[in-house]
């Protein structure tokens, strides 16, 4: 079993990677797909520009 601080670090790094990949995918979605999920191109752009450490 890993020590608690190491587990927290790994969990944080996974969260940051997931945010980065999700935002990258959001930036690449076509406008008609954004419309399907209820997100405007402006909102997608704004979210996609966030840094991975920003919630």
Outline the structure in words.
The chain has 3 helices and no strands. The chain is mainly α and 55 residues long. The protein has a domain at 29-55. Helix 1 packs antiparallel against helix 3.
SSE topology:
Blueprint (H helix, E strand, L loop, with lengths): L3 H25 L2 H6 L4 H8 L7
Quick overview:
The chain is mainly alpha-helical. It contains 3 helices and no strands. The chain has a domain at 29-55.
Percentage beta strand? under 5%
Helix segment count?
3
Q: What's the story with the biggest beta sheet?
A: none
Write down how many β-strands occur, each being a DSSP E stretch of 2 or more residues: 0
Report low-confidence residues grouped into runs of 5 or more. none
The rounded distance between the terminal residues' Cα atoms is: 29 Å
SSE sequence, one letter per element: HHH
Bulk shape: elongated
Structural class: mainly alpha
Report the mean per-residue pLDDT as an integer: 95
Measured on Cα atoms, how large is the radius of gyration?
15 Å
């Amino acid at each position: 079993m890993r020590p608690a601080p190491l587990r927290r670090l790994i969990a944080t790094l996974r969260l940051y990677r997931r945010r980065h990949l999700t935002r990258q995918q959001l930036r690449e979605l076509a406008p008609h797909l954004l419309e399907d999920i209820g997100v405007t191109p402006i909102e997608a752009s704004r979210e996609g520009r966030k840094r991975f450490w920003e919630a």
